[in-house]
Amino acid sequence: MTISLYDLCGADRSLRFSPYCWRARMALAPKGLAVETVATAFTEIAAVEDGGCKSVPVLNDNGHIVRDSFDIAVYLDEAYPEKPLFGDDGVVAAARLIESWSNTTVHPILSRMMIKDIHDLLVPADQGYFRESREKRFGKTLEEAQTGLEANAEALARALTPARHALGHFDWLGGAGPLYTDYILFGSLNWLVAITGRLPLPEDDAVAAWFERCLDLHDGLARQAKRAT
Amino acid sequence: MTISLYDLCGADRSLRFSPYCWRARMALAPKGLAVETVATAFTEIAAVEDGGCKSVPVLNDNGHIVRDSFDIAVYLDEAYPEKPLFGDDGVVAAARLIESWSNTTVHPILSRMMIKDIHDLLVPADQGYFRESREKRFGKTLEEAQTGLEANAEALARALTPARHALGHFDWLGGAGPLYTDYILFGSLNWLVAITGRLPLPEDDAVAAWFERCLDLHDGLARQAKRAT
Predict the structure, then answer these.
(1) Residue finishing a domain among B79, B111, B142
(2) Residues A56 and A133 in one domain
């Protein structure tokens, strides 16, 4: 009996970059469960488990299927209450707001930094799907949409102001220790780091220091992961 | 022995519009304490209590002075643990992020909706200070900075996406019941409503429905408050 996590991969199947999959992997880690990640290309998602999945991560916990990174975190706290990811209903609700804040405010900037780079790292079968869906979403070609790391570094630093403010008061977005609120933003930023190899924030930025602490978590799980560059 | 809350006022001293003061008033309300609000114009803040205050709200709880709306909420939970505003360290940390999100993402839009209207509602002695400090901040005149309710309604609705997402899962930003996370955003939006009389969101917007529920809280405290129009 094992737990499987279907995890988005590139042409190099050891390259795992999805922000949502990273959230799920970081949420699984403190539970101390034996987890097998299953490398999954975009065009392989339709064949995952019962065939009804449109995105990853997908968790299979001994036959119990959970889709969506946030739902996986909620499920994990229900099924494995030790070392809670939320610990309180108020944290779950706040984390929902923070999830959407990161997805709608931080992700568009990260996309502008690397959307063409992501395309180039996909298995050829994925590239057509990725180009078509993303060009439709952005209303421009991937080549036009990617304006680069440096051009968007200031916008990223500015967008992270709310996290920087919280980290002026606490070591973690979860307070005294990491909670799922940390893994939400960590997943977002580790998407960039997996693809481009770095986080373009000033060294003295509290968010950069916190990101390093996140990389150290769970025996350096994310620090040891494959990066494209 | 009483509790006093210094509360920003307009030329009509019953008009209380500061988003930060509204957060503090809503945080005080569930504690069931006898609170006297002290109408305070901008140019009267320097004379509040020990003279060291630069902003309101300022709380005087029988001689114990607390400045800053968030610090007031934290203090209230320490001094009066019943009916917690946070209930958990993880909520405090998340609320810090949400505070900054609202202040840096929502407030600039609200400012563009009404900054000149605010000026016009101040006591004459405040108007010079307000115009000078805000025109310096915005780099333009108040007349140029205010582009109106309708012109910014779409931007406001878009900026509230993270709250709308959370309210798709819970009745309150605090989860099953209101917490300080609710009072943060409520204070922001009630700033607009105190000055302009309305919240320009579609009626079927989950944020608009939640705002109405907030107005009903604590015997309709905010619903019964003076509005400029």
Answers:
(1) B79
(2) no
* Structural domain harbouring A209: 89-220
Q: What ipTM, to 2 d.p.?
A: 0.97
Query: Which token pair is B25?
Result: 């008033």
If asked whether residues A75 and A122 sit together in one domain, one would say no
Interval B174-197 mean pLDDT: 98
pLDDT of A1 strictly over 70: no
How far is A141 from A136, CA to CA, in rounded Å? 9
CB A190 within 8 A of CB A19: yes
pLDDT of residue A50 exceeding 90, the answer is no
B101 and B213 housed in the same domain = yes
**CB distance from B105 to chain A under 8 Å?**
yes
CATH number, domain at A18? Answer: 3.40.30.10
Domain total for chain B?
2
pLDDT value at residue B88 = 87
Q: How confident is the model at residue B114 (pLDDT cuts 50, 70, 90)?
A: very high
CATH number at residue A213: 1.20.1050.10
pLDDT value, residue A229: 84
**CA-based nearest distance B52→chain A, Å:** 23
Could you please report the per-residue DSSP string of A62-106? Answer: TTEEEESHHHHHHHHHHH--SS-SS-SHHHHHHHHHHHHHIIIII
- In this structure, are B71 and B94 located in the same domain? no
Averaged pLDDT of chain B: 97
Are the Cβ atoms of B96 and A169 closer than 8 angstroms?
yes
Query: Which amino acid, B150?
Result: E
Residue of A91, A158, A210 for testing the chain B interface, max B β-carbons within 10 Å: A91
- A146's tokens: 């990617």
> pTM value?
0.97
